[in-house]
Amino acid sequence: HDPVQARKYLTLAGDVALGAYANHEAESYYRRALDLNPSESEETGLFASLGEALVRQNRFREAMAVWWEGIERCTGLADLDTLARLYARSAWAARQANSPEEQLALCLDGLERASGAEDGPGLVRLLRETARAYGDRASREEGEPYARRALNMAEHLGDVEAQAYALATLTVEMGGSREESITRATKALKLSEENGLMLIGLRARRALAFAWTGLGNNREGIEHSRRGAELARQAGFTSGQIRMLTILAHAASRLGDFDEAGRTLSQALLLLTEVGDSTRVATRLALEEIWYSEHMGHWPAAAQKARSLCVSLREQASERDLADAAMGLGW
């Protein structure tokens, strides 16, 4: 058996499986390729891809450990753009694992270690993630320069995926009106659909759901939430599906359709058993449960859940979510 050819075909099989969102199968292929003594550059790519297969299975801490191995290889290879991308993905995973302090620390460490990097898609992602990390700490003014630099860089590169990613995710951090957010996210959605970028399409749908709901057009918010939840389901990305269902429940409640909101929350809670309670989507779902309980007149239960959530969020230093939970106590 030729290990070089075996690594090549296992990696290719992993890429095909990952592209088809067969995430467990992709993980298996990448691990088998890593067992065949790949070169340092091959290892970097395999660690990057393996991490993607893991996060799509909601295994965020495992993905971060794998990506850290990739970061160490990038340092030896002086591959700064891949290093920036892996730092960005690790910071995103830390956010999903409800660790905002770690999210920001990873972003700032990554920017320092990639300080000599040329413009590239990895740096776009790291700048974007830094903007979001500041936004999560209620420091949008600090994050906005990173957001604008990310979008400008993506447009300058002419990289469709990087541009769609930046447009889909840079909404709150860019400032401006809801209408401007809708314009950016609609452009991202068009690019994602034209180029088969399903997960970026999911992010665009989420941005559109937020923006339309914020403008009071809850029916548009519901439509984008439903379609986003379906994209996440097709990708096997349970966390993304829960997040879109949470937004859908919120929009349904604002329309006064509390039966729909209750059914949707029940569906999201069932899916949460696959992800765990110590994740960001669990926090956002808990906040929506509080909001729903208040509207249904279940005040003691809502207040008890809000108090418990506030204690947890103070420990996590999650300032934006803590403010939302505290607002629930003010009803």
Task: Report on the architecture of this protein.
This protein is mainly α and 331 residues long. The protein is 80% helix and 0% strand. The protein contains 17 helices and no strands. The protein has helices spanning 3-19, 23-34, 40-55, 60-77, 80-96, 100-113, 121-136, 140-157, 160-169, 178-194, 198-214, 218-234, 238-254, 258-272, 280-295, 299-316, 319-329. The longest helix is centred in the N-terminal third of the chain and has 18 residues, at 60-77. It is globular, with a radius of gyration of 20 Å. The model has no long low-confidence stretch (mean pLDDT 91).
Contiguous helical run count: 17
Strands, total number: 0
Write down the overall geometry. Answer: globular
In what range is the share of β-strand residues?
under 5%
State the low-pLDDT regions, or none: none
User: What is the residue-averaged pLDDT?
Assistant: 91
Main β-sheet description? none
Q: Helices and strands: which structural class?
A: mainly alpha
The termini sit apart by 68 Å
User: How are helices and strands ordered from N to C?
Assistant: HHHHHHHHHHHHHHHHH
List the helices and strands and how they pair.
Elements: H1 3-19, H2 23-34, H3 40-55, H4 60-77, H5 80-96, H6 100-113, H7 121-136, H8 140-157, H9 160-169, H10 178-194, H11 198-214, H12 218-234, H13 238-254, H14 258-272, H15 280-295, H16 299-316, H17 319-329
Helix pairs in contact: 1-2, 1-3, 2-3, 3-4, 4-5, 5-6, 5-7, 6-7, 7-8, 7-9, 8-9, 9-10, 9-11, 10-11, 11-12, 11-13, 12-13, 13-14, 13-15, 14-15, 15-16, 15-17, 16-17
Put the structure in a nutshell.
Helix content is 80%, strand content 0%. The chain has 17 helices and no strands.
